Amino acid sequence: MSTSPVPGTPSLLRAINDRAALEALLARGPLTRPQISDLTGISKPTASQLLARLEQAGLVVRDGIREGLPGRTAELYRINGAAAHVAGADVTPARIRASVADLAGTVVGEHTLPTPARTGVDAVARMAEALDGAAAAAGLARARLARAVIGIQGAVDPATGRLGYAAHIPGWHIPDLVATLSGGLGVPVAIENDVNLAALAERAGGQAAPEAGGARDFVLLWVADGVGMAVVLDGALHRGATGGAGEIGYMPAVGAPLMRDVRRTHTGGVHSLTGGAAVLRLMREHGFRGRDAATALGRAAADVERAGRRTATDAGARAERALTELATRLGATLATVVAVIDPALVVLTGDVLRAGGEPLRARVQRHLHSLTIPRPEVRLSTVEGNPVLAGALQQALGETRDEVFSTTVP
C-alpha cells in the first residue's frame, strides 16, 4: 500500500510533478516530453524521469511520434485509459442506463436495462445486471470496475442511509443503501441525486464550465416529468442536511393550492404549476398537442420562432401566450431561489425546458429579472446526451483519478 509523501521531501515534489503532468495529458491529449516540460514548468530531464516513472506505473503509454516541427521528432505520450475503469448509472422507474468509461474518460461500454415497476424489486440484482451489461460491452468483468456512481431521482439522507424523495422507485428503500449496494455488487458505490449529477456535467463541460464563462455559484433547474434543482456554491454541490436541497417541486407556489404533507412524488405547489403534466395541460389549453409536454412545448416554441420571422399569425399569438404564461411561472419559481441564494448563473435543462429552447429561455430571463434585484444570466444547458450519466462518470472519474494518480510515488 502506498503512503502519502511527506511534505518538503523529494517524494512530495515528484508527486506534485506527476499529478501536474497527468492533468496536462488529460486536458491536452497526447503530448511530447518538451510540451509536458513547457506546460508544467519542469526541466526536460525531470520530464523524462517523470514519464519513465508514469510509464512504469502503467499510467501513460507511448502514442507514436510527432513530426513536421522544428528540431528532432519527438515521442508522444498519452494517458493509459486501460489503467482503470469506472461506471455511471442513471436510474428511473422505467429503466437503468449504465455506462463504463476508461481512465481517460472515453466511454467504452453502455447498456440499458428495462425495469418495469412492480413490487418485490431487488435493487442490488437489477443494478448488478445493468453494470454487468455495460461492463461486458466494454470487454470487462464487473469486478474490474474501480467504482460506480449511481444517479437516482431522490436523495440519500446521510443521517439514516435511506433514500428519500423517491417513493416512485420501488426496491431502493432499504437500510444502509450505499453499503448494501457496495457489498452486493463488489464495487465501491456512491449514490447521488440525478439533477446534482447534471450540474456536475454542466460544471465540467457545459454552460457553467470556466471556459464557457461559467460561475462557481449557480443553480440548475430541471423540468421533465418532475421538477428539480441543483445548487452549486463556491464550485461545490450543496446537498443540505438531509440531502434534499433543491427539491423545489415540493415548494409552495403562488397560484397553486397550498399542499400539506407533501410526501408523494410529483406533489407540491411548484410541481403543480411547472411539472411535465402541468406544462402539457397549459400547452393544450392554447391549442398545442403532443404525446408529452416536451413535444407540445416544442411546437409552441417553433411557432414563436416562425412568427418572429414574418407577419403575426394566430398560431404565433397563441404560442406567445403559452410561452409567456409558462415563463411567468418559471420566473416566479426562480425568483424565490435567487432571493435566497443570489447565484451568478441559472442553467435550464431537462426534456421540457430544452424543448422550449431559446424562445422560452429569453422569456424566463425577462420575467425573472422583472422580479428580482440580482439579475443572473439564464442559459440553456449545452451538455449533449444524458447529463445524469455524464455527471455520474465525471464524479467517478474524479475520485478514481485522485486514487490512482496518488500511487506513482511510494
Low-pLDDT residue intervals, each spanning 5 or more residues: none
The proportion of residues in beta strands is 15-25%
Helix content: 40-55%
Physical arrangement of strands within the biggest beta sheet: 6-5-4-7-10
Describe the main β-sheet briefly.
5 strands, mixed
Taking all residues together, what is the mean pLDDT?
91
Assembly type: single chain
Helix-strand string = HEHHEEEEEHEEEHEHEEEHHHHEHEH
Helices, by number, come to 12
Structural class: alpha/beta
What coarse outline follows from CA principal-axis ratios?
Answer: globular
What is the terminal-to-terminal distance?
8 Å
List how many beta strands DSSP finds.
15
What's the gyration radius in Å? Answer: 24 Å
SSE blueprint and pairings:
Elements: H1 10-28, E1 31-32, H2 33-40, H3 44-56, E2 60-66, E3 74-79, E4 85-91, E5 95-102, E6 107-114, H4 123-137, E7 145-152, E8 155-156, E9 163-164, H5 177-185, E10 189-193, H6 194-205, E11 218-223, E12 227-233, E13 236-237, H7 269-274, H8 276-285, H9 293-307, H10 314-341, E14 345-349, H11 351-371, E15 377-380, H12 387-405
Parallel strand pairs: 4-7, 7-10, 11-14, 14-15
Antiparallel strand pairs: 1-3, 2-3, 4-5, 5-6, 8-9, 11-12, 12-13
